[in-house]
Amino acid sequence: MQARRRQRFEEVVGRRQFDLTVVLENVHDPHNIGAVLRSCDSVGISEVFVLYTEPQLDRDHLELGRRAAGGAQKWVDVNFYTEIAPCFEHLRSRYDRIYSTHLSDEATELFDLQLSGSVALVFGNEHDGVSEEVRRRTDGDFIIPQVGMSQSLNISVACAVTLYEAFRQRRRKKGFFRPLSEWTEKRRSLLQKYLDRHSRRMVKRKVFRIDPD
User: I want to staple 45 with a disulfide (CB 3.0 to 4.6 A). Which of 40, 110, 124, 137 is the partner?
Assistant: First the structure.
């Protein structure tokens, strides 16, 4: 590997945000999932969660294509669950706060939401939104303010808008980038994972569910 290429990997890993993630609940369209992965990679997210609870969805694995994800499926890990409880147990073990997108009287506007701390952001599909069962496990709702006739955005667009607000808030904090001298073992391990993946050709990637049997 050329020195410039390795330097690029080090710069990317140095900007990975281990305390920010996205959860997609019953998002059907693989193109939407791919677009979300692309947005996540662009703001430094290293893992996302996909939760499928609807019986008609493929409950064994996800197949992530390169076209919609723009290659991001190679660099963003996907935790695939089909049960809510273990998914949220995993989330709570890694993130301090969990917020869901939902239009309610108590919902906080996106631009008033504190997104510079440890947080997971839950998005539902365009038809049903985030389920009540999932919302009961979160710490509150947030909305993206809109002034047009339509009161909803495509899931991938809503996610991108939200993530770039988080990106804006985090860039204002000193220390968004971690130089090599400040790396933890987690960053070193991620760099090695990326270097290993770099040598492999990935047109499609299968992600298998990780629920306990």
Answer: 40
